[in-house]
Each structure stands twice: as C-alpha cells, then as structure tokens.
Specification:
Layout lengths: L12 H10 L4 E5 L5 E5 H17 L7 E5 L4 H12 L3 E4 L6 H10 L2 E7 L3 H7 L7 E5 L11 E2 H6 L15 E6 L9 E5 H12 L11 E4 L11 H8 L2 E4 L6 H11 L3 E4 L1 H13 L11 E4 L6 H9 L3 E7 L6 E4 L11 H8 L4 E2 L4 E6 L2 E2 L8 E6 L23 E9 L5 E6 L4 E3 L2 E3 L1 H9 L4 E11 L3 E10 L7 H9 L10 E4 L13 H8 L9
Parallel strand pairs: 1-11, 3-4, 3-5, 4-8, 5-6, 6-7, 10-11, 10-12, 12-13, 13-14, 25-26
Antiparallel strand pairs: 1-2, 8-9, 14-15, 15-16, 17-18, 17-19, 19-20, 20-21, 22-23, 24-25
The structure holds adenosine-5'-diphosphate.
The site of adenosine-5'-diphosphate has 21 residues, from strand 14, strand 20 and strand 21.
Length: 540
C-alpha cells in the first residue's frame, strides 16, 4: 500500500510567497550606519527578493552557484536571504569579522561568483578580493553615496528586473545556503544547507517548547546574519510574518537598549557576551529603559552562566538557552522546564535553564566516552554526537574531514557533556578546552560560570596552562565590573565554597577585556597563547 499524500517538496520560497500574501503590511525596521531607522515591509521583501532573484538570473547566475554576502543585519541582507534562494543560487554569508586572508580563503573555497556587499564594507572587500574569484559585485548603498563602477548599485540592479518571473524548478534537497564554521577550532569548514533542512529546522525552532516564535513577536537578531543563518531567525520570521528589527552595524548594548525599547522588541537573540555587557547597564540604571514586558532573550554559542540568567530574571526578562553549531543549522537542544519536572523550586528551575537543554524533535543525541555510549545518568561524560535532518553529514569539498563523522553516520561535535535522566545536556567543555590536572578533568565551563556568579565579576574565561607537577592547571582571566575590586584570595575563598580544593585555580589574571572570536565568544586560543608560559611561583 502507498500513502495517498501529495509529494510536495519542502521549499523556503513558500515562506516568501506566504509572507507576501498574508503579512505584506508588517514592518521590517533596519538601523542604518548613521543610526537613522529605515522602514520597509514584508510586501517590499516579497517584491524585492523576487526582483533580486530575477536580476541575478539575468546577470547569468546558474543553478547552484554561490552568491556571497558581506553585510550587517538589515533589510537588504534579509532580501538576499530569500532572493538568492529564489534565483536557484546558494547564499553564502561571509563573516565580516574574520581576517581578510581568511575571508578570501573561504570565498575562494566556496567558489563565490557574485557578491552583495554593504558600501561601508567595500574597504574590507578590497583587502581580500585578490584571493577570491568574484565576478560581479553588487553594492548596497547604505550611506546613500553613489556607487562607483565597476561595482553595480543594488537598487539599480533590482530596478533592472520587472518582477514578471517564475521560480525555477527546485527539489527539496537542492542546496540553498552555506556557511563556514567560524574557525575557533582550525581551518573554517563549509556546511551546505538545503530547502528541506531549513524548512524542518524552522518548524521545530518555532514550537512553543523550543524557541517559541510567533507572528505576534517583534524580533531583534543581534546574532549576525553570517553566524549560522542568524540561528534560523530570518526563515522563521518570514514563515510567520514576524516584525523584524535589524540593528545594522550598531551592536553595542548602549545602542541596542534604545532600539529594544523604541520598537518594543519581544524576542532578541545573541551570544552571552552581548548580554553580559547589557546586564551591567540595566543594573546600573534600573527603570531607565521601558522594555516590552514580553521581552525574552534566546542565547547560545557558548555556555550561558546561571548568574546571568538569574540577573535577567530579576529584570523580568527570561533567557532561553539553545545549543548547536554551524553544522547543526544551528539549533539542536533547548533549555526548557519540562512537564516531568512539575513546578520545580527556584534552584532547580535556574539549573535547568542554565543547562544546554534537551534535544528538540528530530534530533538524535548520544554521549560517547572512551568505553562507548554513556548512560544518561547526569554523571557519565563523553562527546556529544548528533544525527538528524538538519545536521550536516559532510563538509564542502573537504574529504579529509571524515574524522568529524562516525562510521554509523553521526556528527562528532567535539563538545564534552553529561546528560541527566530527563535528557538535559550539561556541557563541561569543548574537547580542547578541558583541563587535565594530575590526571583528573576540570571543567573550564563550570569554573567560568562560578566565577561569573561573583558580584564583582563582569566576565571570566578559564584556560588550561602547563604546570610542572600537575601537567595542567586552570588559569582564570577575569574582568571586574566598573568601580569594584576583588582579590585573588577572595576569589579563591569564593570558589572553595563550590569546588573541591584541587579544582580551585591558584592563577588569576585581572584584565580590561577578554579577546573575542569573530562571532563574539571568548577566544580561548588567544588566552592560551598569551598565558601559556605562566610562571608558577610555587610548583609544589
Ligand atoms: P565555532 O565552532 O567556530 O565556534 P559555531 O558557532 O558553530 O562556530 O560554534 C559551535 C560551538 O559553540 C559548539 O560546538 C559549542 O562548543 C559552542 N556552543 C554553542 N552553544 C552553546 C551553549 N549553549 N553552551 C555551551 N557551548 C555552546
């Protein structure tokens, strides 16, 4: 017997058509480089994305060819997300925070043929263009200054298409977008997404038990649109017709807070470092910003300290933590209290929210240690391995990367975790960040979370440094809040209340800032380079 259901391919262009038909009047707000607000609508997104698709085809784009973007978060990037896909091309979002040589390597490796770039980022393009083989450059005139030949003005490019155009034939497994891992661990690797992977990811992500996104939300993505599909938010917003507020190039909390307030955003997403900085402003000046009572934050990319979740809760703002990676589209687990927990007390509730959460539907997850698959007992640790329809099974044109996958078809994430009996993942580290002291593992994530719970601490990162007796010891790099102080001895006392003695670091560095990766996480490799030859006063 066969099912009687229609075989309709999953297709992201459906979202664009739906938004054009149902949600044309919903606003899309973008902050420009001069901080003015630019307002368009889903009707504009629909019309202009289709024109972009037609114009790209007229310019010679063939199916499956790459169109790179080098852009901040704004309306034109949103249009490119759908226009490139609608043309049959593959959207390749370049990470503008990487070094020019790295961007050039990536653009060349992906064989990008077209580039859509913000005018304010042209100087960056000039620095890597010799390394890439980009044939046509389309410039978004964010500043309003005229675009000089040989570059093509984005508006002129769109005006060259009349919109009388049909979508090319598409299969649900066709490639639609690609993204390179930000290279925290070695050479960037390319992941290619399909209609199918992103439609399914979007549906799962929007569920109330996952991120819980609604058409009645106002969404402010701080996460850059070049970081793992902006966590899938552009697809979700278009599917639901959610009002978008794009911050443009202004990502400092002092710029974000007035925007959150003015547009009454109800959901914002970004890595923990953004919110660590924002909470200081909120606490320093309580009541200054009249934020939406519905505002919640989705946070991921690195572990979210429980102290941060509690601090935002005191401001009436919930934090929803997700875990994932470029390879997983990115969402794989989400931290939500489940029905099996009933009404947990405050400590259990915050502990749940500070975990990486449980796997969302269609994601299979297991923990594999040296002895094989580990039980979900909350104690046994091993590498997280995942499998599912939006998890990559290989890397673009990188046959030597087979080590990243198991012979039975799971992705090896390189993250080390234990899973509780209820299915909550608790990441202890990335494999390379673990600290092995005297033969015992110490979790840098646990130490960081504990240090950041100290009232004087704004930010902290813990790394392993070589030690003559213990092989490795933890070293804590700490940024204290403005106007307060803390000593090493106080920090040690504070940690001794939570950790057994041998886990408490005896090495501390107090500094003004912790270096960041291109996606805003703490850059531990730079700290290891800087402090790797730590001189131990007493090696006993
Ligand atoms: P990169 O690998 O270059 O940092 P990604 O953004 O793809 O780029 O990073 C994925 C990694 O980020 C994960 O493997 C994990 O180590 C870390 N990560 C993501 N979300 C979380 C989280 N909620 N808690 C802890 N670590 C996280």
């Amino acid at each position: 017997m066969k099912s009687t259901m229609m075989q309709v391919p999953l297709n992201l262009c459906h979202f664009l058509e739906r938004a054009g038909r149902l949600f044309g009047g919903v606003e899309i707000v973008s902050r420009m480089p001069d901080k003015s607000l630019h307002r368009t609508s889903y009707a504009d997104l629909h019309r202009r994305a289709r024109r972009l698709a037609q114009a790209l085809q007229q310019a010679g784009l063939r199916k499956g060819e790459r169109v790179a973007t080098l852009m901040w978060n704004h309306y034109a990037h949103f249009e490119s997300y759908f226009g490139v896909i609608a043309s049959g091309g593959v959207l390749h979002t370049l990470n503008l925070r990487l070094a020019p040589e790295e961007i050039g390597y990536i653009a060349n490796h992906a064989q990008d043929r077209f580039l859509i770039v913000d005018d304010i980022l042209l100087p960056l393009f000039e620095r890597f263009k010799a390394l890439a083989r980009i044939e046509q450059v389309i410039v978004v005139p964010l500043t309003g200054k005229p675009v000089q030949a040989p570059f093509v003005d984005y508006e002129t490019f769109l005006a060259g298409a009349d919109g009388d155009w049909d979508y090319p034939h598409m299969d649900e497994n066709d490639p639609i977008a690609m993204c390179y891992t930000s290279g925290t661990t070695g050479r960037p690797k390319g992941v290619i997404y399909s209609h199918r992977s992103q439609v399914l990811h979007t549906l799962a992500q929007c569920m109330p038990d996952a991120v819980g996104i609604s058409g009645r939300d106002v969404m402010l993505p701080v996460v850059p649109m070049f970081h793992a599909n902006a966590w899938g938010v552009p697809y979700a917003a278009c599917m639901l017709g959610t009002k978008m507020v794009f911050p443009g190039p202004h990502l400092h909390p002092e710029d974000l807070l007035p925007l959150l307030e003015q547009e009454q955003a109800t959901i914002a997403c970004g890595v923990p470092t953004i919110w660590l900085a924002m909470i200081q402003l909120l606490e320093r000046d309580p009541g200054k910003w009249k934020l939406s009572p519905r505002l919640r934050l989705t946070v991921g990319g690195s572990a979210v300290p429980e102290s941060l979740i509690r601090a935002f809760a005191r401001q009436g703002i919930d934090i929803i933590q997700g875990w994932g990676m470029t390879e997983t589209s990115p969402l794989a687990t989400i931290a939500r209290v489940t029905q099996l927990q009933g009404e947990p007390d405050e400590d259990e509730r915050f502990a749940t929210l500070a975990s990486q959460g449980y796997p969302i539907p269609l994601v299979d997850l297991r923990i594999v240690g040296e002895q094989g698959e580990q039980p979900w007992d909350g104690k046994s640790v091993g590498e997280i391995q995942v499998r599912g329809p939006w998890i990559t099974g290989s890397y673009h044109d990188l046959p030597q990367s087979q080590d990243s996958f198991t012979s039975d078809g799971w992705l090896r994430t390189g993250d080390v975790a234990a899973v509780t009996p209820l299915g909550f993942v608790r990441i202890t580290d990335r494999t390379k960040d673990l600290i092995k002291s005297g033969g015992e593992w110490i979790s840098s994530v646990d130490l960081e979370n504990a240090i950041m719970a100290h009232p004087a601490v704004a930010e902290a990162a813990v790394i392993a440094v070589p030690h003559p007796k213990w092989a490795e010891r933890p070293l804590a790099v700490i940024v204290v809040k403005q106007g307060v102080q803390v000593t090493e001895a106080e920090m040690q006392d504070f940690l001794a209340r939570r950790f057994v003695k041998w886990m408490v670091p005896e090495a501390y560095v107090f500094t003004d800032a912790i270096p960041r990766t291109s996606t805003g996480k703490f850059l531990k490799s730079a700290l290891r380079e800087q402090y790797g030859d730590w001189k131990w006063a007493d090696a006993g």
